[in-house]
Amino acid sequence: MKIKVLWVGKSRDPWVKDAIDEYAGRIRRYSPLDLVDIRDEKGAAAEEMRRRECERLEKQISPGATLILLDERGEQMNSPGLAAFVGKQRDCGVGELIFVIGGAYGFSEEFRQRGTLLALSKMTFTHQMVRAFLLEQIYRAFTILNGEPYHH
């Protein structure tokens, strides 16, 4: 199963880039991984920004892929729960699992209907931090699935 992570905007902070590189390398030991920056929209009303960013995201989604949208209204899972979810997708023959981090104003309502909503926490994090946190949790899920001691 291939993992793809889409996010709106560039990763700017050096520590975020370092964390992304670190965990991307770790994930690639278990699964092909594709990280895609989507250009963020500027200078429009929030709804228009969401619409345009979601149109760009849509172009990166393969037919038949399973879509997970990081959204504050989504289901919260603990790390073993995320591992079980990823394992179930893999075991059911899902070819591509796509995680999506939206822009500053999130997703359009129409786009939100396309996937499963996942919340990392009830707390609010910057979009930059969420990138590192998500990749770490995907890596942790693979170590749990493989019975490795990283998660304890």
Summarize the structure in short:
This protein is of the alpha/beta class.
Q: State the low-pLDDT regions, or none.
A: none
The name of the CATH architecture is 3-Layer(aba) Sandwich
Note the overall shape: globular
Task: Indicate the CATH class.
Answer: Alpha Beta
State the secondary-structure class.
alpha/beta
Order of helices and strands: EHEHEHEHEH
**What Rg is obtained from the alpha carbons, in whole angstroms?**
15 Å
Q: Percent range for helical residues?
A: 40-55%
CATH topology: Alpha/beta knot
Number of strands: 5
Taking strands numbered 1, 2, ... along the chain, how are they ordered across the largest sheet?
2-1-4-3-5
Mean pLDDT: 95
**Main beta sheet, described?**
5 strands, parallel
Give the percentage of residues in beta strands: 15-25%
Treating each run of at least 4 consecutive H or I residues as one helix, how many helices?
5
Written overview of the protein:
- By secondary structure, the protein is of the alpha/beta class.
- The longest helix is centred in the last third of the chain and has 19 residues, at 127-145.
- α1 (14-27) packs parallel to α5 (127-145).
- It has one domain: SPOUT methyltransferase, trefoil knot domain (Alpha/beta knot, 3-Layer(aba) Sandwich).
- A five-stranded parallel beta sheet has the order 2-1-4-3-5.
- It has helices spanning 14-27, 46-58, 79-91, 109-112, 127-145; strands spanning 2-8, 33-38, 66-76, 96-101, 116-119.
- The protein has five helices and five strands.
- β1 (2-8), α1 (14-27) and β2 form a beta-alpha-beta unit.
